[in-house]
Amino acid sequence: MTNKDLIDLKIPYQNILNRLNKEGFDAYLVGGAIRDYLLGREIFDIDIATSARPSDIEKVFYDKKLISIGKKFGTIKVVDGQFIYEITTFRADGPYIDQRHPKEVHFSKSLREDLLRRDFTINAMALGKGGIIDPFSAGDDLKKKIIRAVGDPDIRIREDLLRSLRAVRFACQLDFAIEKNLKVAIKKHAKAINQISKERIRDEISKILLTKNPSRGLRLLEELGLLEEIFPEVSIMVGFDQKSSHHHLDLFDHSLEVLDKLPRDLALRLAGLFHDTGKPLTMVIDENGEGRFFGHQNLSADILEKRLRKLRFSNNLIKEAKTLVARHMDSANTYTKKSIRKLLRKLGEEGVLKLFDLQRADTRSSKTPDLSNMDLGLRILREIKEENIPIKTSNLPINGHDLKALGLKEGPLIGKVLDLIGELIVEGKIANDKKEILDFVTNKFGDH
User: Fold this and answer.
1) What's the predicted TM-score (pTM) here?
2) Helix or strand run (H / E) with residue 119
3) Phi and psi at residue 131, in whole multiples of 5°?
4) Cβ distance 392 to 345 under 8 Å?
5) Which residues contact 156 (CB under 8 A, 6 or more apart)?
6) Which of 363, 296, 366 is nearest to 325 (CA)?
7) What's the pLDDT at 6?
8) Among residues 148, 209, 236, 429, which is most buried (max CB within 10 A)?
């Protein structure tokens, strides 16, 4: 694959190459930018490989903002306007010592040696003045829509186990197949995946879950033996018969169908994946031979929290996903103005809308979907928004200072009183009026 002119990526990377070339250094655009350009995808990463050493890069771009955190590995980031260019000296990796990182990195003068150390052929192309350099036939793999390792796939995966998840992620993002020998290598080393950092696993799993069809990623993880290592609670659902007249799919297939029907929101998609993980542990068969799963939503929420903590997800995301799972069965009861007001106070408007999204996806993935209750809840939500009802404590016409002015002592009681007032207004027991609220507090808490 060749072309005479530098590709117009709508990104002025040519200026970077030209400055390095002018100082006598070889320089090439490498990796994902070329792949994404050839596939007609939006370009995010701008990586440049060069024969210049890190100190040379700093001298060449003395007039730019430089980020030198990766200097010992040969990388200097150059900030030029709105773009950040990651410029790395040609490298050859030494032996890998922890299934993730090489023991040492050797600087090289060879572009080919630098490309040879990369994971997949579609990420091992370069672009310079002479056009595209493609030593591993990545162009053919792009046409065939295949993820193939550079060199021996077993060595590539054994060197860096994260490449197993990257292969799945690229397959999902690009809608490519994973080459059969690479699949064999991934499966062979699947049981060792947890040897790498939980943060790295978390990041790749998150990207897989946020693809257009996340179910494909989960099926690939299951096929390759990675699912039972990363999400054993989800793996248990594979082939699990719910013995329910309401469901036509096994538990795993149902959960994946829910997953695909959800918006691209990480908390929502994690909730969709885990919302029924408590079912295998709560199943009982009733007198009609039907599967019943009393309290499975609460157990599922606990299972999700435990797993996401192990994978170092943020506390806020864990709390959000856990709440969605714990409340996904709320739609089993007909929504009322009172119940929606309470949901609003607990979850906020965005949280309630996400809960409706989860409930809709769950219901649409059943045998006889009935969305009327979610439609009712949405109508009530719209009505409440037009009313003078405080959704949050901060929306109340009084605050802690007002309560202290009445004589209440500063401390936990202030917050409890504000919460109580909010609940009573939602339930229609007192009006959302400052005077009436203060009169109520005086009568109720005068002794305090």
Assistant:
1) 0.87
2) none
3) 110, -160
4) yes
5) 119, 149, 150, 163, 182, 185
6) 296
7) 56
8) 148
Cα distances from 332 to residues 216, 279, 335, 361, 366, in angstroms, run 30, 16, 9, 14, 14
Length of the chain (residues) = 448
What is the rounded CA–CA span in Å between residue 416 and residue 424? 12
* Three-state DSSP class for residue 382: helix
Which two structure tokens, joined as six digits, stand for 293? 């799963």
Whole-angstrom distance, CA of residue 319 vs CA of residue 312 = 13
Name residue 235's beta-bridge partners.
none
Q: How far apart are CA 434 and CA 414, in angstroms?
A: 16
User: Coil, strand or helix: which one is 162?
Assistant: helix
Residue 128: helix, strand or coil by DSSP? strand
Give the chain's residues under pLDDT 70: 1-10, 93-105, 388, 446-448
Tell me which residue has tokens 């790749």: 204
**Do residues 359 and 316 touch, judged by C-beta distance below 8 A?**
no
Residues 6+ apart with CB under 8 A from 127: 6, 7, 28, 29, 30, 34, 133
Nearest to 350 by CA among 265, 256, 257: 265
Q: Please state the φ and ψ torsions of residue 180, each to the nearest 5 degrees.
A: -60, -40
**What pLDDT sits at residue 164?**
98
253: left (phi over 0), alpha (psi -120 to 50) or beta: alpha
What is the spatial distance between Cα 407 and Cα 56, in angstroms, rounded to a whole number?
Answer: 70
SS3 434: helix
C-alpha pair distances (Å), 269 with each of 166, 205, 215, 218, 260: 19, 11, 10, 12, 8
DSSP string, 142-156: HHHTEE-BSS-HHHH
Predicted pLDDT at 3: 41
- Angle made by CA atoms 91, 94, 100, in degrees to the nearest 5: 95
